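Job type: complex structure
Entries:
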Amino acid sequence: GRPLHFILGPCVIEGEDFVLKAADRVASIAADLGVPAVFKCSFDKANRTSASSFRGPGLDEGLRIMEKAGAATGLPLTTDVHLPSQCDAVAQVIDVLQIPAFLARQTDLLEAAAAAVLKHGGAVNVKKPQFVAPEDTRHAVEKLRGAGCDRVLLTERGSAFGYGRLVNDFTGLAVMASFGVPVVFDATHSVQRPGGATTGGNRAAVPPLARAAVAAGVDAVFLECHPDPDNAQSDGPNQVDFKDVPDLLRSLVRLREVVLNLH
Amino acid sequence: GRPLHFILGPCVIEGEDFVLKAADRVASIAADLGVPAVFKCSFDKANRTSASSFRGPGLDEGLRIMEKAGAATGLPLTTDVHLPSQCDAVAQVIDVLQIPAFLARQTDLLEAAAAAVLKHGGAVNVKKPQFVAPEDTRHAVEKLRGAGCDRVLLTERGSAFGYGRLVNDFTGLAVMASFGVPVVFDATHSVQRPGGATTGGNRAAVPPLARAAVAAGVDAVFLECHPDPDNAQSDGPNQVDFKDVPDLLRSLVRLREVVLNLH
Amino acid sequence: GRPLHFILGPCVIEGEDFVLKAADRVASIAADLGVPAVFKCSFDKANRTSASSFRGPGLDEGLRIMEKAGAATGLPLTTDVHLPSQCDAVAQVIDVLQIPAFLARQTDLLEAAAAAVLKHGGAVNVKKPQFVAPEDTRHAVEKLRGAGCDRVLLTERGSAFGYGRLVNDFTGLAVMASFGVPVVFDATHSVQRPGGATTGGNRAAVPPLARAAVAAGVDAVFLECHPDPDNAQSDGPNQVDFKDVPDLLRSLVRLREVVLNLH
Amino acid sequence: GRPLHFILGPCVIEGEDFVLKAADRVASIAADLGVPAVFKCSFDKANRTSASSFRGPGLDEGLRIMEKAGAATGLPLTTDVHLPSQCDAVAQVIDVLQIPAFLARQTDLLEAAAAAVLKHGGAVNVKKPQFVAPEDTRHAVEKLRGAGCDRVLLTERGSAFGYGRLVNDFTGLAVMASFGVPVVFDATHSVQRPGGATTGGNRAAVPPLARAAVAAGVDAVFLECHPDPDNAQSDGPNQVDFKDVPDLLRSLVRLREVVLNLH
């Protein structure tokens, strides 16, 4: 019976002090509940709706800050990569390289991530693209395995459902798990409402979806959390307030216990 | 903390003896687990893919058999209605009149069901059409309430997702609950694969979906079950074998306990 | 090289005088352009969003008015049927019985329409449900043929695409034509925006969609038209103003000529 | 009345001789019909389903071959770019830089393409992602314009419709045109059937879809064509045989004439 894992942290690096405080908060929540947690924060939001939106501090400064957060808390780290050329530097600092959904079919990015992880340790977490069926995520897994990387995770974050809306197909979780990889449920991006001048979201739907995913059998939950979501510099409408995280996690852990005792 | 309710039974009336045995089995499962259950069976499959498929015994004979099953077990009963002219007779025997998803926008059928239930007692359970958003199910609720019927349920059974496939939007459950009605999750029809010569299904997905729905907060679970699903006369690929029902229900009840203790 | 056919008329019977004027207008447009036209108007809108919306004059009064419109103009007539019990009376007056999309899987309605048309003459036009793949419309065709009716049409009116939106799959037109039936493109309901308090629409998209459908090879175009669409009692947002109909039809006829000369 | 433009050529560079012959064939088809044509071929298929699939000759060799094809035929050229670092070199040889649909939200790629085109001349053609609404393609247009590039095209190539299937929303063409850019219809990728071990397709649907798009008002048609599609090294199931191209183009030109005379 493996315990439920969590990937927690703000959407984007809003400054060094901001990140250190957020990592500290994640660490103490995880310690209080006795759950394994990975700290997540992005150095670059490379596909914002508008070119003038805040993107983050960039690779070098971002990695410097993340390294500090990892050292201060002892938490494993994750962040997303956008170009093959970033992977080696990222893997020197970050434990889990996350492949953004839009980029999950870019062979070179997957192979660079695999090579970097082989060299520096760590794992690769591929987000299921919104336009790809669960059964077709096996091609990404095979590309990574073909490049020598066996530490692979897959993340469900919704499928395109008409325009401006995503839907989670909970029958797909078992399909992805059948490829022999841990499956993560990204409750934050699953409630995005893409479209319009900025991407919106439906934060209220995060807890029921996360609970449903755990009951359906996922291995980990990804949740973006923020000390003040309504003023977040990215993805505010779907990040969870840090103060609401402990109760939510507690309920997920309890559901996990029921699931582990099913068989 | 309301207990989870169940709607259980075979898809279609395959004969009197068949129905009496099935109702007996539902009754003993419910008694063993101490859960409230309604017995479901259809007298007519009015929208089969092919005109030559088995449709059931029809209204009169179907009601006769269902009445006997109710009397023998004490279980409340549910079945679907297809025409306004059927509602009064059905409501004399059946407790919960079920409005098929395809017919949930037919004003006359809703009003006839409301009138029948007002006269003879009972409730109306409207299945969310595959082509209707959760927020738009309130129109069906309003049509029923406008006709004087306050005992209304809504059932999630999947939304059209491309061709030949349904998907459950678990963010819609709270939307439907916000209209002040109990929400049922129909795990059986949610895994249908419409299309082809006969409607297919994905029985293996029933348990994880049912668990997800309970964790997300539904009030009841609808499960078609059969003593020999592979030889069922309708909807075989998505009915659950009676022998697997107790374990599945037990897990759902445990998940419900976690959900009830959330707040 | 069959000429393009048209099905034209207002959504719902808004009174006798209204219908007679509308039929007259359809007749003179058809005569001016030398195109075959069928006059369409509904006696009952049986699936309105709200129970308090205008539904029309009902069966008897509706048929009386339609019969008068047919006699005055010589136009063939079409209207929709909602219950098996309506089909015989309707077929005595109406040439083309239209099966609403939501009801296209109701075996009894199809069989009653087939029987009525066999007895009184005419044809049955089945609207492809929003939740059915083009290849699966053959089941409706087979039900009708199995009941002895060979004069069958299929109508494309959009498929569910997420919530509140339809999309036309123009690759489906050839699939439906392959069943040996004329294929109609319903430009009016294809631009519906279902959902909300009343169904909305996008009238501006009617001409480009109708042109696209003709270029893709449909045999007929269905267009609801009204003398004052913004004040129509039903489906105003997607009906075309009568004054814009001749130019639109003229362009469709010219496109049809190109298509007929393709091979 | 602008004439219809065409973007024609094989999916991927299968060798120098192959490309020179293909470009010659495109040039003579265009000359025979008197239509403006751009020659298309890819130097790298960067998002193949499988890592072991043929990807093409790569950037340097690919540009060398394309330059030769352009010099031999006088045709303008187009190809796709995958990384910001490729744009400058590509724009030195290629007239229209094509942004793949999956990458159309990557701000850096759009800005690098804009800068390269500003420096070396040419235009940027953005493919509408399968997961983006037509109205939201304006963000890509604005990113390019914000970076100083006014020569922008948008290409429709289908939207995700359930799993493994795309659908063209022909109401979206006018929406994209409203941003003041020419709209291209990619008939080849619109009929892709993504999913499975290799991406499939439905070549028979290319002509009706292309005709529909022209009738709906697009400015250009993109068609991949090949001397032997069934043995193509990529996208065989949806490329058109060169021998069928002249007749198809002729019918599109005739439809365009009708559309140009509409107003």
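Summary: The interface with chain D takes residues 159, 161, 167-171, 173-174, 191, 202, 204-205, 208-209, 211-217, 251, 254-255, 258-259, 261-262 of chain C (CB under 8 Å). The radius of gyration of chain C is 17 Å.
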